[in-house]
Amino acid sequence: MARFTSGNDVIAREIIDRYPVAKSAVIPLCHLAQEQDGHLADDALVQIGELVGITPAEVLGTASFYEMLKREPCGRYLVNVCTSISCHLMGGDELLHHAEQRLGVRAGATTADGLFTLEEYECQAACTEAPALQVNYRYFHNVTPADFDTLVDDLAAGRLADTIPPHGTLARIRQRIPSDRAAGAASPIGGAQPGWLTDSPALTDDGSNP
Amino acid sequence: MTITDAKPIVSTRWALDDGHTLDRYLTTGGYEGLRAALRRPPGQVVEEVKAASLLGRGGAGFPAGVKWGFCPPGVFPRYLVVNGDESEPGTYKDRILMERDPHQLIEGVLIACYAVGLAQAFLYVRGEMALAQERIATALNEAYAAGYIGRNILGSDFSVDVVLHWGAGAYIVGEETALIESLEGSRGMPRLKPPYFPAAIGLYGQPTIVNNVETLSNLPWILSNGGAAFGALGAETSRGTRLFAVSGHVKKPGVFEVEFGVTTFRDLIESQLYGGGIRGGKDLKAFIPGGASAPWFYEEHLDLPLEAGAVGKAGSMLGSGAVVVMDSDTDVVKACHRLVRFFSRESCGKCTPCREGTGWLEKILRRIIEGQGRPSDLAMLLDVSDNISPGIAWPPRQTTICPLGPSAVSPIASALLRFREEFEAYVGGALESSVEVRGAAYGPKRVEVAAT
Amino acid sequence: MTDVKREVAVDTVSLTVNGAAVEAHKGQLVIDAADNAGIHIPRFCYHPRMKSVGMCRMCIVDIDTGRGPALQPACMIPVADGMVVDTLSESTKKAQDGVLEFLLINHPLDCPVCDKGGECPLQDNAYAFGPGESRFVEEKRHFEKPIPVSDLVLLDRERCILCDRCTRFARDVAGDAFIVFQERGGQTEVNTFPEHPFASYFSGNTVQICPVGALTAGPYRFRARPWDVEKDESTCTSCSFGCRITVEASRDEVIRRQGVDLDPVNWGWMCDKGRFDFDAMNASERLRTPLVRDGAAAREATWSEAIGRAADALRPALDGGADRVAVLGGARLTNEAAYTWAKLAKGVLGTDNVDCQLADGLPPEVVFGLPRATIDDACADGGTVLLLAPDIKEEVPVLFLRLRDAVLAHGVKVVELTPQSTSMTPLAAASLRYRPGEAAVVARLLGGGDGGGLSIDGDVSAARELLRGATRLTIVLGRPSIGESAATIVDAVGALLGGFPDAHVLTVLRRANVHGALDMGLTPGLLPGHVTIDAGRDWFTEAWGRVPAATGLDATGILAAAAEGKIDTLVLLGADPIADFPDHQLARTALDTVGTVIAVDVLPNASTALAHVVLPAAGPSEEAGTTTNLEGRVLTVAQKVTPAGTARADWHIAAELAFRLGHDLGLESIGGIWDEIERLAPSYAGLTVDIVRRAADRDGALMPIDEAQLAELDGARVTIASQRHRVDAGSATAANRAAAAESQEERQADELAAEAEQSDDEGKGVARGASTSQARPPLLSFAPPATATELPAVDAYGLRLVVSRTLYDNGTLNQHSPSIAGLARVACLRLNPADLARLGLDATATVEVSSVRGSLTLDAVADDRIPPGSAGIYTNHEGADPADLLDVHAPVTTIHIGTKS
Ligand SMILES: Cc1cc2nc3c(=O)[nH]c(=O)nc-3n(C[C@H](O)[C@H](O)[C@H](O)COP(=O)(O)O)c2cc1C
Ligand code: SF4
Ligand code: FES
Question: Which CATH number do you get for residue C51?
């Protein structure tokens, strides 16, 4: 599989419709493709180009700029150990070293069983909880080597399957704009001054519409 | 100690388990700021925010109300892009705001759209923050259903869509013009300012306001309580409260909301309310006052207030509110390398000096740490730095488009000039350099700047 | 008057550059203002024809706008009054040295084996500004050795300095974003998508603008070093657009063509065919010796014998047999050669059976008889263009680039009227389809008339509003399909002019110098300079001694007459009717029937194979002279190498033939011929050798020449705006460039002047006539046809045929060019997916296509560019040719499809 399933195709079009210019949907669609396949296959990039009206090369140009978008399959669990400054100061390097030992792979590689990919990552915005790591972009704070071992055991045993979906799935909740509530994408071309931008308030003091 | 009893503004719901839900939000004053805003003409809302002198919390610290005023009159549509890309090492506050109080942010977004006539808002959340994305998606769905977002908000003729967008891993996308490129579906490479000031030429070439998550999260309170009440807190130009993340070698690392412009670094690092002092009974060696790109501060700076002007005068910045503390055992060469590595990995690659220079600096530092350094490397570090940021001054001058390249220079100048003997020990020789360094915070201890 | 943009009132801004006061246009970039002041700021990413990105940072200089000097990229900052620029300050120098050092740390030191060595801006800048020794001891970035990004272009990523020129060109200029930046930061590289090569008609431009040797052209790689190459400025003759180019030769062989930035024409760009097809001239099959045929086999002959044979065959024309002689072709010739041949045919032989178009063009009164527009007129800000033409990307590719830019950057609105979607369709404000043959129906609707109840695709009324609201309307006019007759297009032109009488016309006839050949009278009914035979009879009789008695036959008429045995001798001037005439059956019968076929050509083809006499002619870059592009701009072409073998210049062959027939044409040099053209051809009056020479160094001369142009050409040699095409940021240092340009200008000037001197020295001046007794004859004008072409009823079971070209095909030149030959495609039948489904065909079906004329076996393919009810076949593709189905006498052709049993 690589092209969108019919279900995802519907979602893809819904996403595109939210933007004033279709090309803005490239990254969200890459995430969608990655959610479907775990990584970005060439066919997916081609199809995203078709959907938003740019060449496959342009889609690739954008996708390859971003770290989270993987051209090659990676493990079911992507384990990103932070070794940026705060975590570095608090033992991130040692944690990474331990992770390499425990998983038996160097950072950047995937375990033979395809379960784990280990990466040395930059700051994850968890600096006060150092050292930190993420599994499929779910946080684990103040991780000791022992915590790490437990985590790996739990993941391998499927005990965290409920909280950590397989690699590729980020948010499990999608934004849905109900059609009867949508204000609509604001096209950059020929836009008029918004109706409410006047010298009078939008609501009266009692909260009703003046 | 200058710890004040100012009440928190943006972190009030952090302790609540269900602070992120619409129900809880509504029972704790939620969406009152929006109602207050809609009961005034948009222009007055802008005035209220100007009166609050709310400085941007994304790093550059530009007054929000003033920035809003930069949209060229008569040019529509205008857009809002919310900068939730928080990625600068040491920085950790926007994520909590998004995870624990998403409605507060959404309410702020709506107030900004109403005030400035922004026709659509995009909430750009950092890609790696899955929980924040879920919480915001849920909050948006709830708010749409409840009539707070979308067509005819609260029955008025104010209509705007707020679109959740998330990134895919690239720090540079936090820079506002790169953020716009990325939101347009392109590689996140910054645009040159001028001419590409977003307020004039932004998303799709239209006037665009880019604001940080924390900046916008302040708006509901300001509208509910008045700009004057906000402006009454703080000192000098630094008004209201502000979030600071204190990380590194402190006993109680954490994110704290303190009165802006009054509280000092010493309070933040040493007070039991906050950092609780250096862990393991060690001494302070250095601290980064405002994120990885800020020049380092030392003991003599501890009593500086967390006030933008004073910190700037002392040669650094409050930046993104990230205070990283290094104790006396810290290997500053390694710490320096770790910071430079970040910028070299995260360079977008557009400007030659940044693309090639930061990589070169990182390689030299790595070589030094691996024991392959030469004494001449130390001068070379400064000279290469000088070619990225001429004069190694503060605020930095740059041969690049955006400040990322010059950011790699701060840790090098800080560490190398203050702790040269540690570098010299690695390379077995003395630093000899002809590069003149003009940053006030750089170099050996200077007592005079401590007395403010 | 040639350059609309130049006319825009320019506010002047005063600034100081390195202490000197400099004037610049408002809005001009500092880097351009400095260039004009003779101060060169080093640069890599900046290119004057593309939007600045300011990313290489090489051009950073100290700029002070009142707040103290700050390092700013000169390529991004517009000039401002009172601005102080210092390109020599200490900080500037340090910063620029730094940038160079940064660029070199990852750049391989393989200059000695790099194609760019010797003309490399990086190398030049490194010498001029660089620090010398590298302090970089770390490992350089490594990439796999050169990867082919297309059939013509190779990419060596190690050499790339990431200036974004090729990628910007591909995306912004060509609209072919097939090469892009990939990865990030220090890992950034330029590359294609897997299995999606940089298949662009314009790929060669990226090689030219690459400031290092990262992109190289397969055909040029390792062929030469810049120092043993000689170059001259010339004009491309691969199509009629007239791209200004340099022709570069080494050891008497052309090895490279590069674009020159001619402001009103090509902006420095070329298409790949024009850039690379010169290698056909070095093909081993090249005609090098005259051939004569006795019986079945052709044999080599001396020039004397071959010319003698040809003269013998033509001689009966002198004694009343003029009608039994015909000349086909001539669009390949220079103006001078075309004139000489016209004089031979019409003035000596007395035949008017002369046609440089092969039923694929338009009648000359449409080309010249309407107010003409220039390329700049069509592309100028805010204009409106009505496109009733073939796919310009396929036929005159650089016009596509200009029009694309006009739409995207200058607010030009395009309304397209075509039988199938084209490359312009996505850019058009309105795109209307008409059923083959029925252009006039839609044209009448657009003009406000009645459509006769025919249903039309697309939004006609929106298009009509656009056209009505146009302040300046240019009709870009050509043959959208050669499957419909020229008459149907002439009808449409008549209808359009009825609705929009103020419109101007830019004709897109594809063949190289077809506009020049028409100018010179290689068309029935006309004498040189847009004069009808009747109007010019006295004037030309006095000058030439003879003109044809009456209007002769066009190509179709000639071949039809030949097929009926009414033509004894047929001269083919670079024409190959067997392959190139839209009606194969007619062409074949004609050539089989004619007594003597005389072919003057450069390469063997299906028609030379049948010829009784083959005279080898000089090819492009082997003969000097001028050409006239589609807007009437006269441009010089340079002779850069000697003709292959014993091949001779075309004009020479004509003069020699005349001589054998006992007539002296009085034409002995290019300059002399030009003098006579200027003197006799009314539309060229005033365009003296001297003016052409001066114009060659500028933007060429737009004919007819007027006072404004003359005044401009008399003015300062180089103005701010026209200097543009002198600055080719892609190669050589400024000093080298200036020197090369100087010496070349002098050389060209000397050549032309020397030749002019040899010619007769009659008086000069605009008002001068052929003789004192004659008034200059009037120019022809267009009158819409009184009755419309009658079309057959629509056949519900048939499909109307659309016949169009692609840039690469099985044309003779293409097939003999090793670089281009492989790019031609196999013929197929293009059907709308709905028709394909309706006919129950799957996407790979092989079908039998038949018309009243014949049948073909083809693979059917789904192609939504073809509207339902029509069928498309490209002409000159491998395997099958629609000319087998066409009857040139019919206005349209209907085909039927049967499955192959
Ligand atoms: C390299 C770089 C990275 C940045 N990253 C962020 C970021 O992650 N989040 C943020 O809000 N602002 C970031 N900024 C600042 C933004 O460019 C911009 O100033 C800010 O979003 C404006 O919002 P504010 O006025 O509300 O602070 C960054 C700036 C630079 C130069
Ligand atoms: S300074 Fe670095 S990150 Fe910023 S635009 Fe230039 S290359 Fe990109
Ligand atoms: S930055 Fe100006 S030429 Fe490259």
Answer: 3.10.20.740
Return the pLDDT at C118: 86
CATH architecture of B234-327: Roll (3.10)
Q: What value does the mean pLDDT of chain B take?
A: 96
Q: What are the residues facing C600 on neighbouring strands? A: C573, C615
Can you tell me the distance from the alpha carbon of B266 to that of B452, in angstroms, rounded to the nearest whole number?
A: 13
Residue nearest (by alpha carbon) to ligand 2 atom 6 = B351
- Average pLDDT of the residues in A79-106: 98
Nearest to C105 among B347, B349, B360 (CB): B360
B405 lines ligand 2 (CB under 6 A): yes
Q: Which domain holds residue A153?
A: 77-157
- B80-109 pLDDT per residue, tens: 999 999 999 999 999 999 999 999 999 999
Residue C200 in contact with partner chain A when CB distance is under 8 A: no
Contacts of B350 in chain C (CB under 8 A): 53, 55
Burial category of C743 from C-beta neighbours within 10 Å (exposed 0-12, middle 13-18, buried 19 and up): exposed
DSSP string, B193-218: TTT--TTTS-GGGS-EEEEEHHHHHT
**Are A146 and A105 in the same domain?**
yes
Considering the segment(s) B22-229 as one domain, its CATH architecture is 3-Layer(aba) Sandwich (3.40)
ipTM summary value:
0.96
Please state which CATH class domain B332-427 belongs to: mainly alpha
- Answer whether residue C202 shows pLDDT above 80: yes
Q: Is C199 on the interface with A (CB under 8 A)?
A: no
Rounded distance from Cα B174 to ligand 1 centre (Å): 5
CA C120 to ligand 3 centroid distance, Å: 16
Q: How far is CA C262 from CA B203, B273, C155, C243, C246, in A?
A: 35, 72, 28, 8, 11
- What band does B416 get if pLDDT is binned at 50, 70 and 90? very high
A46 and A17 together in one domain: yes
pLDDT digits 0-9 by tens, C15-64: 999 999 999 999 999 999 999 999 999 999 999 999 999 999 999 999 99
Q: Is residue A206 part of a domain?
A: no
Collect all residues of chain B within an 8 Å Cβ-Cβ radius of residue A53.
none
Global pTM reads 0.93
| Tokens read off for C650 | 């075309």
Task: Report the CATH number at residue A18.
Answer: 1.10.10.1590
What is the per-residue pLDDT for B3?
A: 83
Ligand number with the minimum distance to the CA of C188: 2
State the ligand closest to the CA atom of B399.
2
Based on the structure, what is the number of domains in chain C? 4
A127, A171, A208: residue with CB nearest B245: A127
| Residue corresponding to tokens 């060690």 | B282
Same domain, A153 and A88: yes
Nearest CA to B406 out of B418, B420, B417, B390 is that of B390
CB contact under 8 A, B185 and A174: no
Chains in contact with chain B (at least 3 beta-carbon pairs closer than 8 A): A, C
For residue C52, how far is its CA from the centre of ligand 3 (angstroms)?
7
Q: Could you tell me how many CB contacts below 8 A there are between chain A and chain B? A: 267
pLDDT at C760 exceeding the cut of 60? no
pLDDT-derived band at A209, boundaries 50, 70, 90: low
CA distance A30 to chain C (A): 15
* Structural domain containing residue C33: 4-88
Contact C193 A65 (CB under 8 A): no
pLDDT cut 90: percent of chain A above it: 95
Of C53, C103, C187, the CB nearest to B352: C103
Condensed to tens digits (0 to 9), the pLDDT of residues C628-682 reads 999 999 999 999 999 999 999 999 999 999 999 999 999 999 999 999 999 999 9
CA distance C150 to chain A (A): 14
Assess whether A87 and A146 both reside in one domain.
yes
Residues C397 and C470 in one domain: yes
- Whether residue C121 is contained in a domain is answered as no
Percent of residues, chain C, with pLDDT higher than 90: 77
Yes or no: say if C99 and C126 are a contact pair by the CB < 8 Å rule: no
For residue C526, what is the enclosing H or E element?
strand C526-527
What's the confidence (pLDDT) of residue C753? 47
d(CA C807, CA C805): 7
DSSP C343: I
> Looking at ligand 1, which atom is closest to the CA of residue B88?
8
Domain count, chain A: 2
Q: Ligand 3, closest atom to CA C163?
A: 4
Residues C416 and C433 grouped into a single domain:
yes
C438 shares its domain with C542: no
